[in-house]
Amino acid sequence: MSAATGVYQSLDKLAEFLGFDTVQALQLWMRGKLCKPYWDEYTRGCTGVELSKGKKARLVDCHSVLKHLAEGEAQGNRKFSSDFPDTRNWKFIDWQARLLFKIRSVNQADRHGIFYGKNMNEIEMATRAWQVILRLNLDASRENRPNKRVKAAGEFDHWRTGDDEAIPMPVNPDGGAACVVWTDIPTEMEGNGQKTTITLTGLVHYTYEQFLKKICSELQLKECGYEIDQLSVAGDPICSDSFKEFLKLAAGLKRKVLVDLATKNCPAELDIPTIENEEDTSRKLLFDIMVAEKVTSGFDLKNRFCKWSLIQEWLHTSKDSDGVQGEAGDGLILCEPTSEDLQRYREQEKWIDNKDLQRQGHPEACKALGIPNPDIPRLPGMLVSAKFEFWQPLAIKAIKEFEEGYLRGGILADDVGIGKTFEAIGLEQYHWNLRKAALESNLEVAAPRPTLIVVPPNLIHQWASAIKAISSDLVVKIYYGGKHQTSADGTEYLTDILSKDSEVFSQTEEAARTTIITSLRTLTSRHGPSVLRKVIRNEIWEKDESTPYASVMEAVNDRMKGMKSAPAWWRHNLKGLFKRVIVDEAHEIRKKKIFTAVTLRWLEAPSVLLLTATPIWNDLSDILGLLYQLEPHKDPWSKESLEKLGVFATDAWNTTASSEEFDPWDIKSDEPASCLRYTSESVEYHIIKGDISLVTKGERMREVLKACMIKRSYGSLVDGQVVGKALPAVQNISVNLAFTPEEQKIYEGVFGDCMAPARRGRRGKNDARGIISASKFRRLCLVTSWTEFDHIAPSYTAKKLNDRRKNGVLHAHTILRDINNAKRQRPYHIAEPPESLAETQIYPLPSEDNIREILQSHCRGSPKLRYLLQLIAELVILRKEKLLIFATMPAQVLWLESVWIIHVFYFAGNPLMLLFRSYSSLT
C-alpha cells in the first residue's frame, strides 16, 4: 500500500481495509450496483472530456477532489449530488468529484454498502472511496495496456515498445525527457529498494532537479507511495555531481538511455489544518483535525485531544467579561480517567470475571461456523457492512453446543454493549446457512418453521433494524399492535392473532428464514393462561347461561389446575410452531409461575436462547426461572423420564428410594442421569437449599452455569485480547449545573418539605435511619429537573398520563397552561415554606404560535433543560449524531418530548444559527 495515498495494489489488503472477508466479495461488490454504474458513468464522462479537450484523463489527489466537491455542493447548489447534473462544461476533476460523492453516499445509505451502519465520518468514508477509485483506475489502465511486460506510468500515447520502432520526437523540449517508460516492471511495487529499469527517450538539456521531478511525475511514483532512492547507468550512480557527465553520455545515445532505478517509501503528505487562534476555532475544525490524524495514524492524539477538551471547557464556562446572564458556578468538568483509574477498573473487572463462562479459540470457532476469514469474521449471507468482533463467534458456537445438549439452549449474559443482539442474529444466520447447504445437497431437512423473538416493546423496531442491517437472508415480521401496516423498509406487521393456520406457518422455505418479533405482553395476552381462562369461561357459559359466576370460575380453575401446556383444541395454541424462541431481557421471566413464563413454556420450541446482562437480579434463586425455560418439554422428574435416564438402576436411587431424596450429584458425571443436575428443581433443592457447605454449593453452581451460560465483561480476555479495548472509547463528562437564586429558594423549600419526615426518624424515633417515601422521592426527582413540576406532579402520574397521551404527545403550551391553573388553585405544595421564598409567580401564558416564548418558559426553572438544548444543538444538529436521554419518571419523558417537538418545528429552517442564538438568551 502507498504510504502517501493508500493505493492498494494487493486485492487481499484492499479487501481487508474495506471490510470484506474475501477478495471474491470485494470483486463482486466492485462489479455490483453500488460501484460499477458510477465508475461507468465516470469513464463515459471522461471520454467526452478527452475528445473535446484533446487530453487524457488523469486522477488528481484526494484532497483536491474533496475540496472541489465541497465547493460544488456549497449553499445547496448540488452540482454533483443532483440526479441529472449539467455536465456540459465539466472537467476531469468534476467527474472525479461526482464519482467520489456517489460511491460514498450510496454505500452509506444502502444496507449492502461498505459504509452502512459503520458510523464513519465523511473523511473516513472519502478516504476509503478514493482507494476504490484508485484501484478501479489501476485495473482500467492494465486492461488497456498492450503489453503486460511494458508500462508507461505517465499518460502518453506516443511511445513504442520495440527497439526497432521509431523514436518519438520530444513533445515539450523545454521540459526534459519527452517520454519515460518501464522496461522491467515489478509485479508489486512493495519491495523497497528493488531495482528496475526505465527507458528515457527524446532527451534534452535540463537541470538535475527537473530530471528527478520529471521521472517521478511520468512514472507516478508518489501516487504509488514511492520516491527515487538511487539512479544509475551501467552501475555508475547518477547524482547532482555526476549529472553533467550523464548528460554527455545521453547526448551520444541517439535512441534510448537505459537507467537503473531503485525506489523507497516516501513519507505521507498530510493536509491537516493548523490552529491559529484557539478561542476563535470552532469545535468542528478541531474534530476534523482529530479525524485526519486518526485516519493517517501518524500522530499521537493525546496532545490535540487535550487541546480540544480545553476548547470545550472554554466554550461552556461563563466568563465575567462576557456579560452573559448565566448561572453562577455553571461550568463543565471533563473527567479523563488516569492510568491508576484504568488499572483499578481492570482489576475489578477481573474479580467479577468468571473464566468458566467464557470460551477461547476464535479461529476454531470461525471454522466450525463456516466463516471463511477469521480476521474479518463474517458468516455467508451477512452484509458487507456487518462483521463479528473477535469474541462473538465463540458465543455463537457455544450456544450451538448448548442446543445440542440436554438443555434446549443457553443463557447469553454478556455485559451491556458487548453484542448479545448481534450474536443472536448470527445464530439465526448460521442455522439458515446449514439448512441452505443441506437443501442444495438434496439432504433431508426438518419442516420449515420460523423463529420467535420476544423483546420489550421499545426494542421491537431496534431488533428489526438490527436484523436487516446484519443479514441479507432473514425475513422480519412484527407481531405487535392491531393496525394493518407495512413499514417503508418492507417489514410486514402481523395484525391477526396467530394460529396454526396462519400463513406465516406455511410449509415454505421462507418460513425457515423468517423471524417474528413480538413483546412479552402481546404474546401473553393473546396466547397465555389469562386469555385461555376467558375462553374456557365463555365455553361454560355458552352451555348454560344460568350457571352462577362462582361456579363457573371454580370450573375454570379446576380445568386450569396442573395444566402443563395449552390444550390442543385451542385455536391460538402455538405449541411446536417455532423452531427457536429468543427472549431479550430474560430476567423478566425469572419467576417460574408468572403468566409470561408459562406462556413461553407452552410454545415448546426445540431451542431457546435467553439474553440478559443480569441473570442474577436479586439472588441466586433468579436463575431457577431461566433454567425452567431451558428444560426439556416433558417433566424431567416424572417417572417416565427417570426410567428413561436409568435412574432406578443407580446406587443413589437404591439408597434414597424416592425422587425427593435422589440427588443427581451423588452419581458419576458420565452417567445419563447426571443431566438432571441442570434442572431448576435440582438447583433449588440440591444447591440453593441443599444441606451442603458453601464451597460445595459454589462448585456445583459453577458446573451448572458452565453447561448453559456465556458471560463476558469488558475486562474479559479472549485469546489474549481484552474485550473492552475493541469497543468505542467512552468519555465521562460531568456537568455541574446551578439554579438561579430564585430557583434555588424553590428547590430548598421542596427539599426541606420532603426531608422533614426523614429527619424526625421512623415511627417518631430520633435515629439516623429515617427514610422518605416513594412519592416524595418522585417529587424531588421532578423538581430537580424543573421547579415548575411541583405544581403539576400530582396530575402527571404514569396512569393519568396514559389517558392524556392517547391522542399523542401533550403540546408544550398545554403543560404551561396546566401549571398556571395549578398555581391559581394552590400557590405551593410546601407545608412550611421558608421566609425567603417569595409568593408564587404566575407568568403570562404565551400564545400557542409563539414558540420562542414557550421554550423560554420551559427553560425558566430548569438548568438541566438549558444545558440539554445546547447539547442537542451540538450533537444532533451540528454533528448529526444520535442522542440517548435517560429519564427517571414518565412525566420527565413527556415533558422533554413536548419541548423537543416544538423546537424541531420552529428551527427547521436554519436550526444551527437559531439554536445558539435563542439558547444564549434563554439562560
TrEMBL record:
SUPFAM superfamilies: P-loop containing nucleoside triphosphate hydrolases. InterPro entries: Helicase_ATP-bd, P-loop_NTPase, SNF2-like_sf, SNF2_N, SNF2_RAD54_helicase_TF. Signal peptide: none annotated. Pfam families: SNF2-rel_dom. Keywords: ATP-binding, Hydrolase, Membrane, Nucleotide-binding, Transmembrane, Transmembrane helix. The chain crosses the membrane at residues 893-916. SMART domains: DEXDc (SM00487). GO terms for molecular function: ATP binding; ATP-dependent activity, acting on DNA; hydrolase activity. It comes from Arthroderma benhamiae (strain ATCC MYA-4681 / CBS 112371) (Trichophyton mentagrophytes). Residues 401-633 form the Helicase ATP-binding domain. It comes from the Eukaryota. PROSITE patterns: HELICASE_ATP_BIND_1. This is Helicase ATP-binding domain-containing protein. One of its GO terms (biological process) is DNA repair. GO terms for cellular component: nucleus.
